[in-house]
Specification:
This is Response regulator. GO terms for molecular function: DNA binding. It comes from Alteromonas sediminis. It is built from 9 helices and 8 strands. The chain has 190 residues and is an alpha/beta fold. The protein folds into 2 domains: 4-62, Multidrug-efflux Transporter Regulator, Chain: A, Domain 2 (Orthogonal Bundle); 71-189, Response regulator (Rossmann fold), CATH 3.40.50. It has a 5-stranded parallel beta sheet with strand order 5-4-6-7-8, with helices on both faces. Strand 6, helix 7 (133-141) and strand 7 form a beta-alpha-beta unit. Helix 1 (10-17) packs across helix 2 (21-30) and helix 6 packs parallel to helix 7. The longest helix has 14 residues, at 82-95.
Length: 190
């Protein structure tokens, strides 16, 4: 049996690989990295396996080649309703196992995460503290670096004005809450 110091928690292993624990879990499920399961049902990773993966795929972890994750979409969910945010994250994680997800609770954090994380899809609520979603959308659209980012606005306001605010700011699509998850899935798969 290996020394306990040879094993890493998912958080430590993900940190070494410069990926999220969710991505690490997905890689373990798909066999891209070996994982052991503790009697309590927790995953553990051999430090040597993690380092070997990092060494074998240096280009991936330096951002030069995304070979392991070519088809992976990165979805940023932005909503100040913590429960709604968590529910969306949960539902989307179940539906799209190979995708990566991040969340933000306000417009400022959304802007930072877009700049740092470079999502491929942004689910953006209209009424956010600090900076409304249409302003965030406008700022993102004014930066050519993010012209390919797909922006799906979300609003609890049932009036057409809310929808037009988002579309005028550059959103690709707007969902009015409450919406059916099936409709969101259709939009994400377009």
């Amino acid at each position: 049996m290996n020394n306990p110091k040879d094993w890493l928690s998912p958080q430590k292993a993900a940190q070494l690989l410069m990926i999220s624990p969710i991505t690490l879990r997905q890689w373990a499920s798909s066999g891209k990295i070996k994982a052991a399961t503790t009697p309590g049902g927790h995953r553990r990773f051999l430090k040597s396996d993690v380092l070997a993966l990092a060494e074998a795929n240096v280009d991936i972890f330096t951002g030069q080649d995304d070979a392991l994750m070519q088809d992976t979409k990165k979805v940023l969910i932005v909503d100040d309703d913590v429960d709604f945010n968590a529910m969306l994250h949960f539902e989307l994680s179940l539906q799209y196992e190979g995708w990566q997800f991040e969340t933000a609770l306000d417009g400022f954090d959304a802007g930072l995460k877009v700049a740092e994380w470079h999502p491929t899809i942004l689910l953006l609520d209209l009424f956010l503290p600090g900076c409304h979603g249409d302003k965030v959308c406008h700022q993102i659209r004014s930066n050519p670096e993010f012209r390919r980012l797909r922006i799906i606005g979300m609003t609890g306001d049932t009036g057409e004005y809310a929808v037009s605010r988002f579309l005028d700011a550059g959103a690709d699509e707007v969902l009015q809450k409450p919406f059916k998850m099936k409709r969101l899935f259709e939009l994400l798969e377009e």
